[in-house]
Each structure stands twice: as C-alpha cells, then as structure tokens.
Specification:
The structure holds 2 protein chains of 2 kinds. Chain A is of the alpha/beta class. Chain A has helices spanning 3-19, 52-55, 76-79, 112-121, 140-147, 189-194, 205-220, 237-255, 272-287, 306-328, 401-408; strands at residues 40-46, 97-104, 157-160, 185-187, 291-296, 337-342, 373-379, 389-391. In chain A, helix 9 (272-287) runs parallel beside helix 10. Chain B is mainly α. Classes of the chains: A alpha/beta, B mainly alpha. The interface between A and B is large, with 50 and 45 residues.
C-alpha cells in the first residue's frame, strides 16, 4: 500500500471510529444536546372554535381583557347578557410573552377532533383514520417521553380534556414506534369528580407490598400480560399510589363543594372549561408536570348562541389568566414554565340561520378562510420569551406548536426526521 | 482382498445404521412418574375483558348479584375518564370489596381451611381449579404475611389472569 493510500484509509477508519458510536437507533448521527429553554410546558387549547374577529380584532369589544390590553367596550347588543366576572387587576398576559395574532390552521377539516389531533401531533390530520380512533402520527406526549434523556414516566405528562368522546384517544397514537408505552396520563375531571368509588378498601403501604407479592405470583403463573395498550397508559406503582390518593382527595373535595365556586366566581357562572382548567391547576400544584395539555371547548356553543359564545370567550380568558397565575405561584414551575395558548380552529365568516336572544346569528366552522384564522400566545420568563410582543403579520401555523414544545423541553433533535413538518416558533424566544 | 470386502461390508452397514437412526422418530420414554402438563394453568384465557365485562363480572364475583344498568354506567364514566385502566380497576375492586353486600369469608373461616379457601377463590375468580403448587404457595404466603381474605381477593382480582377470559 502506498503511503498516501495508507494515510487516507487510516483517516477514514479514524473518522468512522468517532462517528459510528454516535449513530443512534433513531437513525440520527448525534445525541440531543438536551438543552432546554424551560423545564415545563403547559399548552392550553383555547378551543371550541374561536374566530379572530371576536378574540383578536375586538369585533364585539375586548372579550379577552385578561390577555389583551384595550378598553374597547363589549358591544351593546350582547353586553347585558354577559356573566359577572371579576375585573382584571394586574397586567394583561401579553406583557409576559409574544402573541402571534395571525396564526393559521392551514389544512385539514375544521372539525374539533381533527384540529385537536393536529395541535397535539404536529401533523395535519388530512388522510387520518376515523374520528374515534387514535391519531396515526405520534403525539407530543410520546415524543417527549421517548426522546427525553432519560426517558420520562407517565406522571410527567398529562392530557386534561373537558369532554369524553374522541378526546381520551389523544394521549397516545397508534404509531408502531410509539403508542401507550409513551402516552400521557389522561383525565377528564368532570366525570372523575361526578362519580365516586364509595368507601373503598384502604390499603396501608404494608398491605400494598403484601398484595403485590401475591399478585406477582399469580401473574407469573399466567401467560397473558395486561400492560400498556390494553391497559392504557401504565404508571409506576409509586406514581399510581400518588395519583389514586390525589383522585380520592379531589373527589372528596368536590363532594364537599370545593369545586362549585372558585377564582372569586359565583357557582352559577362556572362552566366546564373553568372546571377543567381549575383541575389542571390542581395537577400542576400536586405533580408539577413537565408537559401538560388542557383544553376548553365550551366556546363551541356558538353553533346555537353567539352571545353565549362571546361570554364563554370571556370565561376562557379568565381561566387562562388563572392558569398563568397558578404556574407562577407553584414552586418548581414559577419562572421555569412556558405557557402556550391557541384555538384549534376558527369559525366561518358567514353566520348560520340561528339567532339568539339578542338577535345575533350563530356561527359554524366549515372550512372557509376565516375558520382557519386563529392566534397563538407564548408566555414565559423574562430573558427566555420575548415580552409584550405582538406579531401582526401572518406567521406560524398549528403544526408549529409541537416542534416548539419539543425545542423548549430539549428533545427536538432526537425526533426522527420526517415526523414533524412544522418548525420551532423562534420569533417568540430570546 | 477379503479384508477390503469386509471393510466395504462394514462401511455399508455403518451407513445404513446411521441412515436408519437419523430418520427414526423420537421415542417418548415414560419412566416411573406420571405425565406432567407443563402448560401454564391459565385455562387457555386469551381475550381481555371489555370495560363493561370487567365491571359486571367483578361486581357479580364479589356480591353474587348482577350489577344494575345505572350502577354500571355510573362506574363506566370515570373508567373512561382516566387513562391508566389498571389503576381504575384497582380502585373499582377496592370499592366493591367494601360494599355491604360483598361476600367475603371471615378471617376465621379462611384460617380454618386455607387450601379450601384458595381453591374456592380460584374457582370463583379464575373459573378454574388451583393446582397443588398454587395452593401450597398461597397457603404459605397467607400464613407468612398474615393476609386477610379481602387482601387475598384484592391480589387475585387485580392480577393479569382476572383481566382475561
């Protein structure tokens, strides 16, 4: 071998010896840096179909005074029908972050389930499966649990929805490389709180240990294995014990009336969106999850009642502010959490034929341009998130939220290429 | 030459022996012990119970009564509303075991004949007989850990086998 050929071969071999150990099962060359912008992300789907005309452009006044500055009065036609909510006392949420005022839900059906799937998977559900099936592309929860280093337990990721139907299926996908093993803890507070397991057998830690030993014996004598998938998402025994205690305590509090009225709001004003966010706050306080997605959908009353739709936007605005306040008052979450809020889709420009008590016509969402116009709010600590910034031009779309959450939590580089078509919303970050 | 002839005859016989023995079906030798079925004692259960089936069967197994439609719907709601089904099932079983109508033997009854208690529990919950090893092990486990009947029932009803039929 000539000297030059020897040096060339040796060089290639040396380079290979450096590179090969870093080829990961995911097919990536190098491991993720793991650097995070923050250690917690809360994504609030301000959903149910919110038109930018009412939310961002004050078509009927400022219906979101907790989020946006401006004293535009609520239009006279509906003002008398608005619920009595406490007036904001602090700065609007915009002061703590960046508002993408002209965000877009660009593709796919403007249906709630499809658009929820898009927001949670980072992929437009264009050729997806039936509504009641799980998404075919992985959810943000699965990316997070599988690609974080070290991998995360279910306790770290929560999906809190205010309805059943197709929503329980959004805590993990049917993707063969992901699935229940990497899913989030799913909870629908309304049903959990309205039904109780009366007077349950109480097990001490010793009882748990003894029964676990006997159960292990039984399981070892049986060939079937009831695990993730059929069994849903599986928590570790220690985490399951904490969650069970939390649920039992919450049910007892609900039975004692503690969920009837909160945030200084009368019981007759509380809607399911508020209850859902309030329960998400309890999860935040109890477990300080790294990733939590919570939704609100009562705004969808707009199919029949425009006035109530506007009122529910106000309630969702209050709920979002309460969520932010809870984050800031929770040790471990304060100043280390990014809160993202966005509707799943908008509503039509043209109304349908249903007039409400104030003569205002209701709105559906059937895929016109207006029903694709939404906003996205990114809030976070000073020095990490650009504060008090409004981007009024058309920037960003629904599929960008998952890559943004992945970047915040530092696992973005570990996600195999081709799975996420969107991008990190870097405009929001310092 | 006779040596060469003998050599070839011996070689042919050897090859024939190898060929015959290699094609011969394996012989099952039976010694002075009984046959032992090494298949696990799972009663050939391969299907998981649906949520409705799990609740209905568990209620019936514990109380000896059928669950009402309204009770079933009441329990299905939170079952649908939490994603860790194992945890929900454990909570349901704990609730059922403390119902006034729950039919659980007293500790005295269990202690008077633990093998019978174990066999009865296996028939009741697993729909099969416990084998001798299971009876021996669980009796020992109950004695060593001072388990009461409710805890034994809880362990059996939260096991994998109980989730199948």
């Amino acid at each position: 071998m000539k000297r030059r050929d020897f040096i060339k071969a040796a060089g290639i071999a040396a380079a290979g010896s450096f590179i090969v150990p870093y080829i990961l099962p995911s097919g990536r060359l190098f491991a993720a840096s793991g650097s995070r912008i923050a250690n917690h992300v809360i994504f609030c789907l301000f959903a149910g179909g919110v038109r930018n005309i009412e939310s961002m452009h004050f078509g009927d006044g400022n219906l979101m005074p907790y989020t946006l500055p401006g004293n535009d009065p609520i239009s006279a036609s509906i003002a008398g029908s608005m619920s009595n909510l406490p007036a904001p006392s602090g700065q609007p949420l915009l002061k703590y972050g960046t508002l993408f005022k002209e965000f877009r839900y660009k593709q796919g059906s403007t249906g709630h389930t499809r658009a929820h799937q898009t927001a949670i998977t980072g992929n437009y559900a264009i050729n997806d499966n039936a509504l009641n099936n799980r998404p075919v592309t992985p959810t943000v929860f699965e990316y997070y649990r599988k690609h974080s280093s070290p991998t995360k337990q279910a306790m770290s990721a929560w999906w809190v929805s205010n309805q059943l139907g197709p929503y329980p299926n959004l805590n993990y996908s049917s993707h063969p490389d992901y699935g229940a093993l990497y899913g989030a803890n799913y909870i629908q507070p309304y049903s959990i709180l309205s039904t109780s397991y009366s007077n349950p057998l109480v097990l001490s830690d010793l009882d748990r240990s003894k029964t676990a030993g006997l159960r292990d014996f039984c399981d070892n004598n049986f060939s079937g294995n009831y695990v993730s998938g059929d069994a849903g998402v599986t928590n570790t025994p220690d985490d399951a014990k904490l969650i069970e205690s939390f649920i039992n305590r919450s049910v007892a509090e609900a039975q004692a009336g503690q969920y009837n009225s909160f945030w200084g709001v009368n019981a007759n004003v509380i809607n399911n969106d508020m209850l859902n966010v309030y329960f998400a706050e309890k999860i935040i306080e109890e477990f300080q999850p790294e990733l939590l997605v919570v939704n609100m959908t009562d705004i969808d009353t707009c199919h029949q009642n425009f006035t109530r739709y506007c009122d529910n936007i106000r309630k969702a605005d209050l709920a979002l502010a309460q969520l932010w306040n809870t984050i800031q008052s929770t040790p471990g979450m304060a100043n280390d959490t990014i809160l993202i809020a966005a509707p799943e889709h908008g509503r039509n420009l043209q109304p349908n034929t249903i007039a409400d008590q104030n003569g205002r016509y209701a709105l559906d969402h059937t895929g016109d341009d207006t029903s694709r116009e939404i906003f996205c709010l990114v809030l976070g600590p000073l020095g990490k998130v650009n504060q008090n910034q409004t981007i009024a031009t058309q920037v960003g779309e629904s599929i960008d939220i998952v890559p943004t959450m992945a970047t915040i939590l530092g696992f973005n580089t570990e996600i195999p290429s081709g799975l996420l078509p969107g991008r990190h919303l870097e405009e929001a970050f310092v | 030459m006779p040596n060469v002839k003998h050599f070839f005859i011996a070689l042919l016989l050897s090859l024939a022996t190898i060929a015959i023995s290699s094609c011969k079906k394996e012989t099952d030798y039976i010694y002075q012990v009984n046959d032992v079925d090494v298949k696990q004692n799972d009663g050939d259960k391969t299907q998981t119970k649906s949520k409705e089936e799990f609740i209905s069967i568990a209620y019936s197994d514990i109380t000896g009564q059928s669950i009402t439609r309204s009770q079933l719907e009441n329990l299905l709601l939170p079952y649908e509303a939490f994603g860790d089904y194992k945890l929900v099932e454990e909570m349901i079983i704990k609730s059922f075991l403390n119902l006034p109508e729950a039919q659980v033997p007293s500790n005295t009854d269990m202690q008077s004949d633990i093998p019978k208690f174990v066999n009865d529990a296996y028939r009741r919950f697993y729909n099969r007989d416990a084998n001798e090893y299971e009876v021996w092990y669980i009796e020992k486990y109950i004695r060593e850990n001072s388990l009461d009947p409710k805890l034994v029932y809880y362990a059996i009803m939260t096991s994998n086998e109980y989730r199948y039929y």
